[in-house]
Amino acid sequence: MKRQVMLALVMSLGLAACSEPEPSSTRPESGQDGPSVAPGEKGPDGERADEAETGAGEGAAAERLAPETPLPADLWRSAPSEVTLGDTVVTLDSRLWLRRLPVIGADGTAPSDMVHASVKLQTKEMHQIPKGLEIQRVLLMQGDQQWLAKENLDIRAEGELTLEVSLYEGPEWLPGSAVDIAVLLTYKGEEIRLIQHGVIIGPLRTGD
Q1: Alpha-carbon dihedral sign for residues 55, 60, 66, 68
Q2: How far apart are CA 203 and CA 199, in angstroms?
Q3: Which of 57, 82, 133, 177 has its CA 20 to 30 A from that of 34?
């Protein structure tokens, strides 16, 4: 009888131990040690959660999406066709022509007749090109289309009176059409712009 009572007591103690809840082992996930803040609510530092997320990528997005404007439209009207540096007057003298390349054109049916250009800085009255005058970029515009050249420019001096930059494989503009040309220069730390309007594209050239 005593053995039956003791056995019943042991079984009741075992059931009571199994029914007690175990301590919670759940821990905050990595990166969430502080209190969580719902979007639109303010955190301990007074900053909205959604504002913090937006501000983090705003600068990078603006940098990626900001379009380059090499020459504002109003400067096509206001930039001069000649500039005086010291006692030397500098102007532009440009030539445009087409050259056919042995590749498929933009329309997929014909070879490409691409614009090539020779853009020259020259002086009046046989003066020398001022030392330190540098060509930084060249921009050609026809209608709403632009061709900007600013890297690895092929610049050569022809004696001391002329500085020439050659451009290759530009747009497929039509022969006989007019193009406006702008050259951005630097001289003694100052940026200078020169414009030549209405340069006509010459006919197709073959050979060298």
Answers
A1: positive
A2: 13
A3: 57
Q: Which residue has the higher pLDDT, 112 or 93?
A: 93
pLDDT per residue as tens digits for the range 8-38: 444 554 544 444 444 444 444 444 444 444 5
Structure-block tokens of residue 29: 């996930």
Task: Kindly list the distances between the CA atom of residue 30 and the CA atoms of 27, 33, 50, 166, in Å, as whole numbers in the listed order.
Answer: 9, 7, 20, 59
- From 46-55, 139-148, 198-207, the region with the lowest mean pLDDT: 46-55
- The DSSP letter of residue 70 is S
Judged by phi (left if over 0) then psi (alpha if -120 to 50, else beta), residue 125 lies in left
* Separation in Å, CA 68 to CA 58, 63, 64, 73, 171: 18, 10, 10, 13, 19
Which residue's entry shows tokens 């600013």?
Answer: 150
DSSP summary character for residue 87: T
Give the integer Cα–Cα distance in Å for 189 and 91.
Answer: 19
